[in-house]
Design brief:
heterodimer, A: alpha/beta, Rossmann fold, two-stranded antiparallel ribbon, 40% helix, B: alpha+beta, Glutaredoxin, eight-stranded mixed sheet, 5 helices, 8 strands, 33% helix
Chain lengths: 253, 187
């Protein structure tokens, strides 16, 4: 809105002034550097402090942080697991579309993970759906020792470059995932379930050590469905317990 | 600020035109295919009878991948049933292949929604993978020679608009052995 108004205003001033203003704008643009290549910064997250020695980085998917996720984070903090919750669409003003996640700067995510490691706590990062993409890119940008120190949990990760009917799926290349431990949480009632082995293999081919678990009788984003089943409602209220169970079974202590 | 009667009507017509353009009927998202032979499909129906695509050679086939837990799949099912009724006697076969779930779930769903077309089962998802189906619902329109002519990711109202036009266009390619009422022509 501001930019539109500004441009409209430009056309209202006299020609000589217009040229002058454009020159100033170009100069300022030159100082700021190319558009879209902003310096890395810590993303704007929501923190749930706790005194325990574990820290969970929780990355919501493109539809934003659901109330059940906020409640889950609070419950984890009450249990001693500190949570830093990132809602990428909100933090980066992105449209609520899956591929918006691809636009989240990987350096910001990497810096966020470095900041988490600097806390001295055992760090686990958890991402939902397409949010796996900036997380894996951020992890790939870390030093191998930093990467190996982080546990990774991905809820039905969408890591396709392309997935079209009748064609072999094409997976994204994240760079080296050597030394990474990834646990995939896959709701049974999902079109992605038959493709779980393919996604595991794609991540293993890039060097990660991958395990998976099927979440029975659940659909994708079961914690935020418009018409949840009774079981989904129950499970959505105990996201904290599900994540804690998976963190512990995956050795993220 | 005043507006003449003509301007008011102009605005209204413009709005209607915009709404029509924005209607989902014009944007179902069918993808035309290069008439490649369909992958093999061998599946059992609810009665345990083995069915293959070859059983339907000579007919246009609407093959729909779905699941009971998938709300858009459930929403489009009644329109598939209406299409079946509308096309009775014409060489169109509708096959709904349930993807990767227990047969008990399918039976429970069909107790609520009565459907007149065959339901095929893919309990372990093998057919879903062979056909490279990544989302539900996904549908394929297969011509009488067993070639995939269109695919669609997502739901649609099958008995109207673009979907119906495409079905009719594939039926129109067949020799005129059936009229639109499903009756064979007089000798």
């Amino acid at each position: 809105m501001f930019i539109t108004g500004f441009i409209t205003g430009l056309f209202l001033v006299r020609r000589r002034m217009r040229v002058g203003l454009l020159a100033i704008l170009l100069f300022m643009a030159g100082l700021a550097g190319p558009l879209g290549i902003a310096a890395a910064a810590l993303p704007d997250d929501q923190r749930y402090p706790a005194n325990g020695d574990r820290l969970l980085l929780w990355v919501s998917y493109e539809r934003g942080r659901a109330p059940a996720e906020a409640s889950g984070a609070e419950a984890l903090a009450a249990a001693g697991v500190e949570v830093w919750s990132l809602d990428p669409t909100s933090s980066y003003f992105l449209p609520q579309l899956g591929h918006s996640m691809d636009a989240v700067p990987q350096e910001d995510v990497a810096d966020w993970m470095r900041a988490a490691l600097a806390s001295g706590k055992q760090v686990t990062i958890y991402a939902v759906a397409r949010a796996a993409v900036p997380v894996l890119r951020g992890l790939a940008a870390l030093e191998p020792t930093q990467r190996a120190a982080i546990c990774v949990m991905l809820m039905y990760p969408n890591i396709y470059r392309e997935a079209e009917p009748l064609a072999e799926p094409d997976y994204l290349d994240f760079g080296s995932l050597e030394g990474m431990r990834i646990r995939i949480l896959q709701p049974r009632r999902s079109a992605a379930t038959p493709w779980l082995p393919g996604r595991v293999e794609a991540l293993e081919m890039q060097g990660a050590n991958v395990s998976s678990v099927i979440l029975e009788n659940l659909r994708e984003n079961f914690w935020a469905r418009e018409t949840p089943t009774e079981f989904e409602t129950i499970e959505g209220r105990r996201l904290d317990a599900i994540l804690l169970r998976e963190m512990e079974s995956w050795g993220c202590r | 600020m005043g507006m003449s009667l003509g301007m008011k009507w102009g605005h209204r017509l413009g709005l209607v035109a915009m709404l029509l353009l924005a209607s989902p009927l014009g944007a179902a998202g069918f993808q035309a295919r290069d008439a490649v032979p369909a992958p093999a499909l061998v599946a059992r129906d609810l009665a345990g009878v083995e069915r293959t695509l070859a059983d339907y050679r000579g007919k246009v086939v609407l093959l729909n991948f779905w699941a009971t837990w998938c709300p858009p799949c459930r929403r489009e099912m009644p329109s598939m049933e209406r299409l079946r009724v509308k096309m009775q006697g014409r060489p169109l076969e509708i096959l709904a292949l349930d993807s990767a779930e227990p047969v008990e779930d399918v039976k429970a769903f069909l107790a609520i929604m009565k459907l007149g077309f065959p339901i095929l089962l893919d309990p372990d998802g093998v057919i879903t993978k062979n056909w490279k189906v990544f989302g539900l619902p996904t549908s394929f329109l297969i011509d009488a020679q067993g070639r995939i002519r269109y695919s669609l990711s997502g739901p649609v109202e099958w008995d109207e608009g673009e979907a119906l036009q495409i079905v009719e266009s594939l039926l129109a390619e067949l020799p005129a052995t059936h009229d639109k009422a499903g009756k064979a022509p007089n000798p």
